[in-house]
Structure formats: structure tokens, C-alpha cells
């Protein structure tokens, strides 16, 4: 009955169901980005003299994109807020394939996991969660052209035990980006 009353509610039984829900939430986040943009940029305030002149010029604000980790934190926060109460966990930097005993290895940027509801299919065990991996890159990252195939599909999806993932590239408008001392813009 609750599903019929609230179209936002969904039953998540498969990785495709989870993908559909997360995709819809990311579309909402994308529509709201203009009002959240300062969360994704580092801003160094400029100088605004009372009377700009040649001796006392106006120095504009300096804007630079936040690092990939900040974009991941923002997305994790938004997903957690919007998926609250749906038996969905959103985790960052999950170690899915250890390569040594000291904690090194493959880590997903975001791992979204939907847990079965009590009373769902009796054949689904408590450990039968449905997973989705999200890999995030900044547009300046040299691996943008190759990471979707090599990193996300080639390693993370099999290691996480899922067949669905989302590849997100944070693309910041070049004309707003001050490149002084920041080689990422090139």
C-alpha cells in the first residue's frame, strides 16, 4: 500500500533496480548543482578596494575545483540524504581487494548497497545485499579516458561482486577556473 501511495518508494531486489534508483537521485542532484556549486569549488577572495585605481587595482576572486575526494564526499552526502529510510547504505573508499596486510588495495570511491527488507523474498539471506559501485574522476585526471573500462568495469565491479556501476566525471567550466599555480586545468 505504501508503494502505491508514494511513487518515490521502490522495491530494490536487483542491481538494475538499485541502478535505476541511484540514477534518479543523481539526476536530482544534477538539477540542484547550480545552488550547490560553491560546495564544489575552492574560492580565494580577491581584494576590493574602495576606489580601484592603477595603484590600487581590483583583484578578482580565485576559483579552483575542489579535489576528487571532495566531490566524492559531496555525492555520498547527497545520496545518503536522498536515500534515507530506504535500507540503502552509501560508503566511501571501501577496500574491496586487499593487496597487502597493511590496508593497501583497490578501494571504490562509493559503494552503494541495498539491504533486503524483512519479509522480502524468503530465499534472500541477510547477506544478500545488492551493490552498485560509483567511480568518480575530476576532468583533469589523466585516467578519465581509460578508468571506466579498466578500473570500474575491469576491477571494481568483479571485486565488489556486482554487475552495475556508474562512472562520474566532475567537469568544471574552464572559463571560471583560475589556473595560476594549478596545473590541473591544462
Please characterize this protein's 3D structure.
Strand 3 and strand 4 form a beta hairpin. The chain has a four-stranded mixed β-sheet, with helices on both faces. A two-stranded antiparallel sheet has the order 1-2. Helix 2 crosses helix 3. It is of the alpha+beta class and 186 residues long. The radius of gyration is 21 Å and the shape is elongated.
What is the topology?
Blueprint: H1 2-5, H2 15-36, E1 41-44, E2 62-65, H3 68-83, E3 88-98, E4 105-114, E5 130-138, H4 144-160, E6 165-170
Key structural traits:
alpha+beta, two-stranded antiparallel ribbon, 4 helices, 32% helix
Strand order of the largest sheet: 3-4-5-6
Query: What would the principal axes of the Cα set say about the shape?
Result: elongated
The average pLDDT is: 83
Secondary-structure element sequence?
HHEEHEEEHE
* Helix amount: 25-40%
Instruction: Please compute the radius of gyration using only Cα atoms.
Output: 21 Å
Quickly describe the structure:
The chain has helices at residues 2-5, 15-36, 68-83, 144-160; strands spanning 41-44, 62-65, 88-98, 105-114, 130-138, 165-170.
Amino acid at each position: 500500500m505504501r508503494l502505491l501511495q508514494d511513487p518515490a518508494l521502490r522495491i530494490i531486489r536487483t542491481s538494475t533496480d538499485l541502478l535505476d534508483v541511484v540514477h534518479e537521485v543523481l539526476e536530482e542532484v544534477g538539477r540542484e548543482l547550480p545552488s550547490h556549486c560553491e560546495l564544489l569549488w575552492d574560492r580565494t577572495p580577491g581584494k576590493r578596494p574602495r576606489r580601484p585605481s592603477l595603484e590600487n587595482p581590483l583583484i578578482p576572486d580565485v576559483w579552483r575545483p575542489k579535489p576528487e575526494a571532495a566531490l566524492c564526499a559531496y555525492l555520498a552526502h547527497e545520496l545518503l540524504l536522498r536515500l534515507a529510510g530506504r535500507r540503502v547504505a552509501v560508503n566511501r573508499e571501501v577496500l574491496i581487494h586487499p593487496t597487502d596486510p597493511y590496508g593497501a588495495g583497490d578501494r571504490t570511491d562509493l559503494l552503494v548497497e541495498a539491504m533486503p527488507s524483512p519479509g522480502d523474498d524468503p530465499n534472500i539471506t541477510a547477506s544478500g545485499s545488492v551493490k552498485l559501485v560509483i567511480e568518480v574522476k575530476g576532468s583533469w585526471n589523466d585516467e578519465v579516458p581509460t578508468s571506466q573500462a579498466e578500473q570500474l568495469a575491469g576491477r571494481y565491479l568483479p571485486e565488489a561482486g556486482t554487475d552495475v556501476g556508474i562512472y562520474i566525471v566532475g567537469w568544471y567550466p574552464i572559463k571560471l577556473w583560475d589556473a595560476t599555480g594549478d596545473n590541473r586545468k591544462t
